[in-house]
Amino acid sequence: MSPMNLSFILQGALCSLFLLVKCQCFQVQPTLSSSLRPSSRPSLTHRLATVNFNNFWISTYANYTVCDAPEREPDFESRSGSKYWDEDGTVVRQSDHWTGQHGCYKIVDCYWHLNEQHAFEETMTGQCALTDFAKKRSRGRKTLQQRGVVVSKKKEKVQLVKIKIDFDNFWRSTQAHYVAHDYPIDREPDFKSKSGSTYWDDGDGVIRLSDHWTGQFGVTKIVDCRWTIDVPQTKMKQPVSGKCLYEDFAKRKRTRTKTISWRKLSR
């Protein structure tokens, strides 16, 4: 054997020995494939930690099943007329609007479905266990303020414009101050809203009987109107009637700035 061939053999043996020692000293851990790797990203929908009758309505998803309404008084009644009962770990809801039916998308900030279809403005009753409520988990995205961006809000100005008001348009973005007045008990109301407020056309003005007025018990706007009354409510949900002349109504006209300015905060 020539000296050149012997040197090649020795170099190959030394390289093999070096690789063997390196693999024993630095053992490489096997990696799991993406399909076997446990998911570290939580699902967008998760179960609430503690669900009770005081928080089931905060941004939740639920599927209600049709049931009979309890014979007792409801534990809570919303402004839209929906009634709620707390029945031993189950929420019973009676309402004429459900998610996905007749153009109803969200119920405030919740998605509540009913397992049966109902006619328009038909009141249906459903129940759902508190353990079946789910809430949408945020994606962890930072807000503009957290990212150091200041957004100038749109400035809104309201101008009160005098226009011709009658019983057909007094409810369209108007502002008015009602004076205490008895409502007519000898005839049916000319209109009744979903929230239970009743209205009468009195010729020169409108008479309103309602349990919610602007500026009382947290009420700011009534749909898109601001209607105050000179009689204070002594308790929540107390019906009060008042009258306002059509000539005293004013149209609320909004003007907003169209430009939005952005600027980075100094670091």
In which range does the helix fraction lie? Answer: under 10%
H and E order: HEEEEEEEEEEEEEEEEEE
Number of helices: 1
The class by helix and strand makeup works out as mainly beta
Multimer state: single chain
What fraction of the residues are assigned to beta strands by DSSP? 25-35%
**Which residue ranges are poorly predicted, with pLDDT under 50 across at least 5 consecutive positions?**
26-48, 258-267
Q: Can you summarize the main beta sheet?
A: 8 strands, mixed
Question: How many strand segments?
Answer: 18
How would you sum up the global shape? elongated
Could you write a compact summary of the structure shown?
This protein has one helix at 3-25, and strands spanning 45-47, 60-66, 76-77, 83-86, 90-95, 111-114, 124-129, 134-136, 149-151, 156-161, 174-180, 191-192, 198-201, 205-210, 226-229, 240-245, 250-256, 262-264. The chain is mainly beta.
Task: Describe, in plain words, how this protein is organized in 3D.
The chain is mainly beta and 267 residues long. It is 9% helix and 31% strand. It is built from 1 helix and 18 strands. It has one helix spanning 3-25; strands at 45-47, 60-66, 76-77, 83-86, 90-95, 111-114, 124-129, 134-136, 149-151, 156-161, 174-180, 191-192, 198-201, 205-210, 226-229, 240-245, 250-256, 262-264. The strands form 3 sheets. Strands 1, 2, 3, 4, 5, 6, 7 and 8 form an 8-stranded mixed sheet that branches. Strands 10, 11, 12, 13, 14, 15, 16 and 17 form an 8-stranded mixed sheet that branches. It starts with a helix and ends with a strand.
